[in-house]
What we know:
The complex is a heterodimer. By secondary structure, chain A is mainly α. Chain A contains 6 helices and no strands. Chain B is an alpha+beta fold. Chain B has 3 helices and 7 strands; from the N terminus they run ααβββββαββ.
Amino acid sequence: xxxxxxxxxxxxxxxxxxxxxxxxxxxxxxxxxxxxxxxxxxxxxxxxxxxxxxxxxxxxxxxxxxxxxxxxxxxxxxxxxxxxxxxxxxxxxxxxxxxxxxxxxxxxxxxxxxxxxxxxxxxxxxxxxxxxxxxxxxxxxxxxxxxxxxxxxxxxxxxxxx
Amino acid sequence: xxxxxxxxxxxxxxxxxxxxxxxxxxxxxxxxxxxxxxxxxxxxxxxxxxxxxxxxxxxxxxxxxxxxxxxxxxxxxxxxxxxxxxxxxxxxxxxxxxxxxxxxxxxxxxxxxxxxxxxxx
Lengths: 162, 121
């Protein structure tokens, strides 16, 4: 790990933070709580395929923590964190056999599913499960969008210091 | 790339994504099929049930939840949030609920309103 590499990772962290912020400006979908496009995951997926796993993990982890500190509450942090952890390790496992778009789609689905589970546990309500279809679908759509963009970037971005 | 070659090359991925879409379709059907009319609802804040109301009586009650308030309205056997001071307003835009199992959730306020299919226990 040298200075240049660290600097580039820092840039990606900044980029993830900006994407995270931009997301707070977008209007929210009315049918279920917690639906997001997950723009910041663009950086996560990109790093997963172009940088080392640990680097992708740490940068995204720091992004989740900082975003929660800046834009969120303790409660929202729990949800962000659980979604991130489940989706990241899911994507890591799938990365071996699948391409970035499907990995991102799975990441999106896992992220939302994990958040629903957490909501069920924290709020003690089994009925929240009824939101699962909506969140599944939105995870697929968002994941596909992010995955397509990430795929282009992964392939076309000139070799950044790696 | 030609269609057939495309499907061949990305077979695994298309199967995965297709499978997920199928799963969400099934889940959706599931929620549609197992619907029962509701006749009461419970109000839970932070996992604690603080109130319950029947759906056959119109009422309007202001719920003091975590970090804010939500106005619950029951009319014509349906329940909805008329007004809330949360930032995302998802609970308000949710609209009306009336079937058993349907919920209105205000996550920032940790509020969960659940419609029940049998009388208030």
